[in-house]
Amino acid sequence: AFESITQAPPDPILGVSEAFKADTSSDKLNLGVGAYRTEDIKPYVLDVVKKAEKLMLENGENKEYLPIEGLADFNKATVALLLGSDNKAVKDGRVATIQSLSGTGSLRLGAAFLARFYPGRTVFLSNPTWGNHKNIFADAGVEWKEYRYFNPATIGLDFEGMMADIEAAPNGSVIVLHGCAHNPTGIDPTPEQWSKIADLIEKKNHLPFFDVAYQGFASGSLDEDAASVRLFVERGFELLVAQSYSKNLGLYAERIGALNAVLPTADLATKVKSQLKRLARALYSNPPVHGARIVAYVVGNNDIFDEWKQEMAGMAGRIQAVRATLVEELKKRDTKGRDWSFITSQIGMFSFTGLKPAQVENMTKKWHVYMTKDGRISLAGLNKARAGYLADAMIDSFDN
Ligand code: PLP
Ligand code: TYF
């Protein structure tokens, strides 16, 4: 039956980790995958996660199936974290929230919803974007195109290009926006730019679909990082938001996240939720409980919640410190006086270095520094002790 199947290519991001594992050099550095590491470059389980898990054991939580829409306490907590604890849309019952399989699964559920209930529309993705966005929408049978986002000349946002492409998109298109800490560029619109983007999306009757994978990780503050989404909700938009707890709670493998649909009326929110449940039932029946309980325990316990905010600020702060050290080390070695400030102005886990594919190959082949081909490095995989080594590799690669 399957004789004609050909080999699929490796994933461009996860393939980098596989190549890193196979490298036997003691100099090697994995700056490919976006996963937080400690200053010793070790995986990190948050203290608040350990505390929540201890409480869960003590309380003898069972392993019964969750309802299709997920754990009620989690759904309440996740929408409050996103929109604020006394958000009017939530109080009015206008938000349909479904616990789903982390950011990826929530995006995929949203894509399935669009395919069924908003057919024939095109989804517009930023260029560049997180590579999996394209797979997710394509596999759901939703056509995608791109809008301009990055300007290589300024290593900044191509705001005019972005606005022109959103303007040129057919009325009623779906616009995917990274809520904060844009992956891979680390460049976000300013509050003033967000406001102009909202004006334009409103004028064009587009549907915003926010991807919030780094709430708390960009600025270190949950509220600040949700400002873009909150602006749109305050202005009365109908919209979708996918949330992930992979990065901000370090729950990568627990697959915990949510899809939120903000609707004009409570009646419509009830109907949309019923349809999302129907889609989820056929896709995976019901979501896993462990990560949902962790989030519910962390948010539901004031002391643990405060401690989480501190741990998040600690993670964001370590990455900011590493960025600063890397810039210092680059300046020490750079005889051409280049401007490295983009490394400290870009936010979140990543820096988009502008290294070309041949230079990336030099980084990996000669220096054993693993990164994605688009020139993205994950600062979460670096520490101060290795910043000088990375600077050597970058200067050598830029100069050759
Ligand atoms: N969206 C963006 C922009 C991401 O960078 C990621 C993870 O790197 C995700 C979504 C989804 O991750 P997960 O499925 O682990 O929540
Ligand atoms: O580094 C990134 O951009 C992500 C990381 O199931 C990732 O792609 C890895 C595995 C996964 C989801 C995200």
From TrEMBL:
<keyword id="KW-0808">Transferase</keyword>
<dbReference type="InterPro" id="IPR015421">
    <property type="entry name" value="PyrdxlP-dep_Trfase_major"/>
</dbReference>
<comment type="subunit">
    <text>Homodimer.</text>
</comment>
<dbReference type="Pfam" id="PF00155">
    <property type="entry name" value="Aminotran_1_2"/>
</dbReference>
<dbReference type="GO" id="GO:0006520">
    <property type="term" value="P:amino acid metabolic process"/>
</dbReference>
<dbReference type="InterPro" id="IPR015424">
    <property type="entry name" value="PyrdxlP-dep_Trfase"/>
</dbReference>
<feature type="domain" description="Aminotransferase class I/classII large">
    <location>
        <begin position="27"/>
        <end position="393"/>
    </location>
</feature>
<dbReference type="InterPro" id="IPR004839">
    <property type="entry name" value="Aminotransferase_I/II_large"/>
</dbReference>
<dbReference type="InterPro" id="IPR004838">
    <property type="entry name" value="NHTrfase_class1_PyrdxlP-BS"/>
</dbReference>
<dbReference type="GO" id="GO:0030170">
    <property type="term" value="F:pyridoxal phosphate binding"/>
</dbReference>
<dbReference type="InterPro" id="IPR000796">
    <property type="entry name" value="Asp_trans"/>
</dbReference>
<comment type="similarity">
    <text>Belongs to the class-I pyridoxal-phosphate-dependent aminotransferase family.</text>
</comment>
<dbReference type="InterPro" id="IPR015422">
    <property type="entry name" value="PyrdxlP-dep_Trfase_small"/>
</dbReference>
<keyword id="KW-0663">Pyridoxal phosphate</keyword>
<dbReference type="GO" id="GO:0004069">
    <property type="term" value="F:L-aspartate:2-oxoglutarate aminotransferase activity"/>
</dbReference>
<protein>
    <recommendedName>
        <fullName>Aspartate aminotransferase</fullName>
        <ecNumber>2.6.1.1</ecNumber>
    </recommendedName>
</protein>
<keyword id="KW-0032">Aminotransferase</keyword>
